[in-house]
């Protein structure tokens, strides 16, 4: 692209984003936002097809009415073509996605460290939120064709209201968990390095986005099964022996320490008691035990008993010292 063409591209793009284009030129570009073939554009092949349509369409729209100076119209045709074909398809797609996102409104629910909360969604689904959890729910969920919830981080136990015509999906980062009517627990604290689903009743499908594809991690988890995806290694593990412990927090606020190192235990302690926790030494060994919802002093004693660590508490900071 020539330097002068880049200047034209930059100027038109800035004018369009700032709402400063004249109505005729703005209409030409806006019209393409509403085209069905544009709304579905999702691949590079579709982008190329769309670019060709945009190029041909703008030329036809601008040259159809040429009765005077062709050079002025041609200049606009070249500039518009450069704008839409040479690198701005991405801008246009993002613009359309942004508009679509604006049309879908969400309610946001959060819990602080040390806090749990129970909410009932508009479709009748019950959600129990553990500490430091953030959840977004589509407004008018009960009237949506697809019931979609965004668990951005944290832990939540879902008792989904059954509706065979409207599947219920929870999106957490790259992971999508889909059900019809069931109860299950999702744990997604990214700093712990894992995504975990434990099924209490019903059947649950777990998928992970991989580029533009969906990879099925498990097509149908059943009661008692637990799937754990390691965010670092990409490995998936399926077990059946810890589902009850993993779901027990919603009843008694206990925590099941499941193959966690000291860094992960420190994160649990910090979330549950809203206090900074640090580790003073190596932390590679894994531990498994149940930590009841106890006063902080008793919780520290329980951790020390199960891991052999010593601990200090000064200036609202807890330090865990690994056993030597």
Task: Write up this protein.
The protein is α+β, with helices and mostly antiparallel strands. The protein has 3 domains: 3-102; 104-247, Jelly Rolls, CATH 2.60.120; 254-321, 3-Layer(bab) Sandwich (Phage tail protein beta-alpha-beta fold). The chain has 10 helices and 18 strands. It has helices at residues 3-18, 23-33, 36-39, 44-63, 70-85, 89-103, 243-247, 249-252, 262-273, 296-307, and strands at 106-110, 117-120, 126-129, 134-138, 147-159, 168-172, 175-179, 183-188, 194-201, 204-210, 213-221, 226-230, 236-239, 255-260, 277-279, 287-291, 310-314, 317-321. Strands 1, 2, 3, 4, 5, 6, 7, 8, 9, 10, 11, 12 and 13 form a 13-stranded mixed β-sheet that branches. It has a 3-stranded mixed β-sheet with strand order 15-18-17, covered by helices on one side. α1 (3-18) packs across α5 and α4 runs antiparallel to α5 (70-85). The longest helix has 20 residues, at 44-63. Residues 36-59 and 65-70 have low confidence and may be disordered.
Short structural summary:
By secondary structure, this protein is α+β, with helices and mostly antiparallel strands.
List keywords for this structure.
alpha+beta, 18 strands, Jelly Rolls, 35% helix, Phage tail protein beta-alpha-beta fold, three-stranded mixed beta sheet, 13-stranded mixed beta sheet, 10 helices, 3 domains, 324 residues
